[in-house]
Amino acid sequence: MYVRFDVVKKLGDFVLEAAGELREGLTCVVGPNGSGKTTLLKILAGLLRPDRGWVEHVGVKAKVYVGELHVPPDAVAVEVALAGRSRFSPTPVRREDVEAARRYMRLLEVEDFAERRWRTLSGGQRQRVVIAAALAAEADLLLDEPLANLHGDWRGRVMKTLNDYATGRIVVVTTHHGDVLKCCRALIALREGRVAWRGDPQQYAEPLDTACG
Fold it and tell me: SS3 letters for the chain?
């Protein structure tokens, strides 16, 4: 199982030129704002086409990109989690889909909020529901800033959950949080649209703390 890519994408004045390989496990993509993290993930997910180059998926049966979700304020939390079972499309869901969504909500300690309106949840609670939705897809995942709005020990706990989930799957997350990078199997650092560094997160030059739960 792997994903290989060698792509060029121009968006206005910005140009992404990136090549690399993703293997089973949890990969972190880091870099300053505007370095191309979101653009790369959307290309890998098939949401953007590169202007030049290619993406090769081998052994990947399904992939889901999850970034910022626009949720109606009157939606209830379990409806958002169920979006993962429908691959974030209006596909009808079954009883086993509801059970799976609630299982991942329980894992992230948001099942107690399942029937609450979206507008009543805190930013951190919403983020954990979105992550539960992504996990409920039970696909290879590309998660754009999944740690946004998470505080305290929740960043490390979520990364530990994603690391466990990534067994037998390819999971890629973008993040600005250096304290969680040791939770990842591999790391890709982007700068100004180029791959500036790739390899073992524990050898990355930035100072890191351990927060993997």
Answer: CEEEEEEEEEECCEEEEEEEEEECEEEEEECCCCCCHHHHHHHHHCCCCCCEEEEEEECCCCEEEECCCCCCCCCEHHHHHHCCCCCCCCCCCCHHHHHHHHHHHHHCCCHHHCCCEHHHCCHHHHHHHHHHHHHHCCCEEEEECCCCCCCCCHHHHHHHHHHHHCCCCEEEEECCCHHHHHHCCEEEEEECCEEEEEECHHHCCCCCCCCCC
**Distances in whole angstroms, Cα of residue 119 to Cα of each of 76, 82, 107, 133, 204:** 9, 17, 22, 17, 39
CATH among 3.40.50.300, 3.90.740.10, 3.30.70.120, 3.40.50.10860 for 1-62+139-213: 3.40.50.300
Mean pLDDT of the chain: 90
Digit-coded pLDDT (tens) for 25-76: 999 999 999 999 999 999 999 999 999 999 999 999 888 899 877 888 889 9
pTM of the model: 0.89
